[in-house]
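Need tokens for this chain, all 263 residues.
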Amino acid sequence: MSDYEKHIYMIVFPTNTLVASQLTPEKFGEHYIMGSTKHFSGKVIFAEIDINFRNDYFEIDRVLETTTPHSDGSPKKTKFISSYNVLEHIELSAIKRIFLCTRNGKVLPIEPAEYTAYNQPGMIRIYQEITPLETLVATNKDQRAFGKYITTETKSKGAPKICFTQIDFNIQNFFENNKNRDIFHIDLPSVNPYRFYDCITELQEKPDKTTKTISLGSLLKDISYKFLRHGFWFSDGTELRFFPMPSEIELENKYYYWWKYVR
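Here are the structure tokens for all 263 residues:
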């Protein structure tokens, strides 16, 4: 019987679960998209967790012990470890890589990197919280400040840890294109353009207001990966783990097998 390497994967989107598997990341992503009847359609984001990571909240050793090949010798595809409060109990340093899956099962690996970008103060950005929250937020906080705010400075709209991304959306163009129009239009699916207008206006006119909730649902199921700006952040207070999106040139030259399906 084949001796397959065991892996621990954390699904980040569309759910937040921890699973054991004998599939490689590429095969795991393909299985989740194409081979699993539990996930019928749509993109998937998951992370590879250090195989040596342990937390008493999870029964990792017990599940890994039973993650064995089937009787026909084929690898065990998924063995659930936990489906509740997963990210909250994961050390950010244990997140080795993340993987973005297209609707047809192509998988893009992203390595972590230090987040060194200079952030323009006061600039309004649009963040999509991914897990454990799914709120679309407008804020004048940069990525470091936003992650810290959500995980340590607010209980009503926060969580102990958060994964989020930034939506690449030109706010100035939105205002210019809707000037003097009776019916507003916005190029963001399932977003009320009037609500968006009011949120941005309030942030601009009230300096003491730093965040506004645009909508409660996630845009990730409907928008292309190309509308995500910079990458993905996992935050726990002042700790930030960043996974940068490859540049468009790198996507075209190195990951064209993936990029051609998301444009």
